[in-house]
Amino acid sequence: MFARAARLVHQAAALPKRPLLDLANKQHGHLRNSRFLCYEAQRPLVFDVATTEEFEEHVLRSTIPVIVDFHADWCGPCKMLGPRLEQKVQGREGAVLMAKVNIDEAGDLADEFRVSAVPTVIGFQNGEVVAEFQGMIDDDQIDEFLDQVADVPAAEQ
Amino acid sequence: MECPAGDKASRTSSPGRFSRFFTSIRERVVARVDTGASNRRTGAVASTAGAMAPRAARLGSSAVPISAALTTIAKSPAAVVYSESVQHRLEEYVNLLRGQEIENTVVVHVDEDARKDFQKLTLRDNWPLVYVKGDCVGGLEEVNKLVANGQLKSWFQEHQYDLIVIGGGSGGLAAAKEAARLGKKVACFDYVKPSTQDTTWGLGGTCVNVGCIPKKLMHQGALLGGSIKDAKKFGWKFPEGEITHNWKTMRDAINDHIAGLNWAYRVQLREKNVEYVNSYATFVGPHEVSGKNKKGVVTNYTATRFLVATGLRPKFDATIPGCKEYCISSDDIFSIKYSPGKTLCVGASYISLECAGFLKGIGLEVSVMVRSILLRGFDQQISEKIGKHMEAYGINFIRGCIPTKIEQLEPKTKTAPGRLLVHWVSIDAEGKKTEHSEEFNTVLYAIGREPQNVDVKTDVVDIELAKSGKIVARHEQTSVPWIYAIGDILEGKPELTPVAIQAGRVLARRIFQGNYELTEYDKVPTTVFTPLEYGCCGLSEEDAIKKYGQDNIIVYHGAFKPLEYVINEDRIENNHCYCKLICVRNQEERVVGYHILTPTAGEITQGFAIGLKLGAKKRDFDRLIGIHPTVAEQFTTLTLEKKEGEEELKVEGC
After folding, report:
1. Residue B83: count of CB within 10 angstroms of its CB
2. CATH topology assigned to domain B161-313+450-513
3. Domain B323-449 has CATH 3.20.20.80
4. Residues B98-118: pLDDT tens digits?
5. Phi-psi region for residue A34, left (φ > 0), alpha (ψ -120 to 50) or beta?
6. How many DSSP H helices and E strands does chain B contain?
7. Average pLDDT over residues B590-602
8. Considering chain B, what is the average pLDDT of its residues?
9. Which residue, of B125, B277, B531, B551, is most buried by count of CB atoms within 10 Å of its CB?
10. A56-84 as b/e, with b when 16 or more CB fall inside 10 Å?
11. Beta carbons of B260 and A116 less than 8 Å apart
12. What confidence tens digit (pLDDT) does each residue in B641-651 have?
């Protein structure tokens, strides 16, 4: 978990135009988007989920849309897709969150969602599946997918 | 259907009795339609014992074909199979079962010929023959034993599953999936106890994790090194400098693939509705297993039937100091993260030779220590040729010895194998002993494999084991009638993945559907993936001589050079490729043994094996026209007869 947090900070720092959002610090008055004042905003944008309980709390009960990346260490396409998804999610600045589920460590979760191939990415809104894809997709398709999950109206795309 | 007590002689036509009689006819008609009778025999597939009044018996109980009998048995709570010669004993059997409150015991009448089929199918002489819930029990004695120890009662209790498979390897998974396909409720327990070096792995068993799959991939990795040398002679340009091999790259790629397979099997079980329990199962009752997983969660499941497919693990020699503590086995070699370095393979099994082969192929220094002969059980002429090839390949053979002690000079770390000092004694022709010792980075023990399932023989179930610890069975049925066994754990059968898979599927269909199907364990083709591969099917020359007599055997053979290798004169394989067909003279030279030592022997042998299965004669091989240029075509033009005491065959020009 710490390595992940470290990586996220590093990634965020590497993105030149986007200010580093200190979501944990409520004292920042100049947070741009009021959505961040709700309690989910205290979590990082990208986080690991390993148990059914964590999934229920941080994905199903999240008021912000969440995409769940089911991945595995031994899966080549996962290793390529994962970082690109994370970057894109960071770019949405809190409009959508990302949960990462390692299917070898969280086999029960993978079984529950009948994940058969990896990577499988499922988008949730208010506890319901709104979009899903399997395998590698290109950047444009990732944008479309995130638009769908974050409910961005067609005109804005 | 109710069986009214003791009214066999009654012919009163009370309505109740009439309706039973007519139901009985309806059953018989339906049953006849079901079996699609090409057999013109009429009538009763079975009648419930109670309705078998003398009148019904006269009308209905003609003998039925065995296929119909087996299907009925598979569906009945209990069945007694008989033929006319033992009809007089039927009552005793039926009464015994009825006395145990087994409703709807069915009697199945077959003819005397079918009796032989039943004996072949069950490997039991009892007649009449009793089945309980589709499992063959035997005769009165066996049933009485089950009554006495209360196991008959627990057999008839409600169980959660139709089948629990213990062992998620090649055999277990195949059987579980087939049973689920037939609509049965199945659970599969799989748990890997760590190796002596603490290695574990996921679902899929030995073949997927520490056997066939990684072995073949590493064998391929090693062979590619040789191909690079060939490539240069064919004009490919390589950058200057030595071409080296990185162990970790190969190891990671292979292990990622295996992890993908572990996952795929999990998904498959889920999709086919087999419940997967990642726990070590032990019998806690005649129909109950208990398993505790890594997190300490205990699962207790009951089932009508069980299948033990727990396989084998590498043997070590506890009498040799340092053997278990410092040596690795095939459980470890495929996943170690650092190169094994200079390696000693102890053992003459195909595991030892295959591992030695690919380790040498990727550029390591390798020795093989052999107590006596190579590849016991395989054709010895070919086995010695393999040894000669491996020596020419650069592997050092230490023959006629075993280690006496293994000392650790430097422990292994996370990134390096450490150093071991191996001591052994050699004895020359005069009996003089010499002590030797040599340093190695890794010692791999491959002296055989043994069962490690002591838990199947407990107070609650007493499964008969052979001296080897393997399970003794009658066509996969253990000494406990509702417990079956397949795969490597089964005594007397080839230890091969495809054998286990076939056995699993055939068994599921036989016990759940009553199919008249047995696994054919003979003429199973196989291949040893040493650097020069050895494919074979049927008998070795020694076994053929033993079975048919030296004078009745004729061997046709040939030595050859694969065309792909002629450009590179350094290819040592050019002096070692060989093949032979072993034929029986007085059976029109029927081919009983097929052997080939060549690259890609596995791919070649598979096809020819069908010929042996169909009883091909030498002249059939001669009628067949070869594909040119291949190595396999050798078998279509074998004319040289092997003679005793002649010189080793040399390759001739094309």
Report:
1. 19
2. FAD/NAD(P)-binding domain (3.50.50)
3. no
4. 888 887 899 999 999 899 999
5. alpha
6. 19, 26
7. 98
8. 89
9. B531
10. eebbeebebbbbbbbbbebbebbeebbee
11. no
12. 998 878 788 87
Using the structure block, give the residue that is written with the tokens 């067949």.
B624
**What does the DSSP 8-state code read for residue B617?**
B
φ, ψ of residue B419 in degrees (nearest 5): -135, 135
CATH of domain A44-151: 3.40.30.10
Q: Chain A: nearest CA to B252, how far in angstroms? A: 9
Determine the average pLDDT of the residues in B208-216: 98
What average pLDDT score do residues A59-78 get?
95
| Measured distance CA(B353)–CA(B345) in Å, rounded | 8
Instruction: Give B391's pLDDT tier (boundaries 50, 70, 90).
Output: very high
The pLDDT of residue B223 is: 97
Chain B residues near residue A104 by CB distance under 8 angstroms: 202, 259, 262-263
Which DSSP string do the residues of B526-556 spell out, in sequence order? EEE-SSS-EEEEE--HHHHHHHH-GGGEEEE
Looking at per-residue confidence, does B653 or B465 come out higher? B465
Q: Which of B251, B252, B267 to mutate to test the interface with A (most CBs of A within 10 A)?
A: B267
C-alpha B302/C-alpha B329 separation (Å) is 35
Neighbours of B567 (CB within 10 A): 11
- Cβ–Cβ under 8 Å, residues A151 and A145: no
Determine whether B237 is exposed, middle or buried from the number of CB atoms within 10 Å of its CB (0-12, 13-18, 19+): exposed
pLDDT above 80: residue A14: no
Cα-based distances in Å from B530 to B224, B389, B520, B601: 14, 9, 27, 10
CA distances for B615 relative to A88, B544, B556, angstroms: 65, 15, 17
Within chain A, all domains assigned CATH 3.40.30.10 are found at: 44-151
How much is the ipTM here?
0.73
Q: Do B259 and A118 touch (CB under 8 A)?
A: no
Q: Which of B445, B443, B426, B251 is nearest to B366 (CA)?
A: B443
Q: Are strands B590-597 and B578-584 parallel, antiparallel or unpaired?
A: antiparallel
Span of B92-101, B120-129, B141-150 with lowest mean pLDDT: B92-101
Helices (H), B437-513: 497-513
pLDDT of residue A43: 67
Which pTM value belongs to this model?
0.85
Q: Is pLDDT above 80 for A29?
A: no
SS3 B564: helix
The answer to whether residue A38 is catalytic is: no
CATH of B526-653, one of 3.30.390.30, 3.40.50.1000, 3.40.50.300, 3.30.390.10: 3.30.390.30
Q: Is any Cβ of chain B less than 8 angstroms from the Cβ of A103?
A: yes
Q: State whether A114 and B260 contact (CB < 8 Å).
A: no
Of B259, B266, B270, the CB nearest to A74: B259
CB A104 within 8 A of CB B261: no
pLDDT at position B104 is 85
Are the Cβ atoms of B257 and A103 closer than 8 angstroms?
A: no
Q: pLDDT value at position B427? A: 86
Of A118, A91, A83, residue with least CA distance to A102:
A118
Q: What is the mean pLDDT of chain A?
A: 79
In this complex, do A72 and B263 lie within 8 Å of one another by their Cβ atoms?
A: yes
Judged by a CB distance cut-off of 8 A, whether residue A73 touches chain B is yes
| 3-state secondary structure (DSSP) of residue B241 | coil
Place of tokens 């205290």: A42
Contact status, residue B262 vs residue B209, Cβ threshold 8 Å: yes
Res A108 pLDDT > 80: yes
Q: How far apart are CA A102 and CA A49, in angstroms?
A: 8
**What value does the mean pLDDT take over residues A58-81?**
95
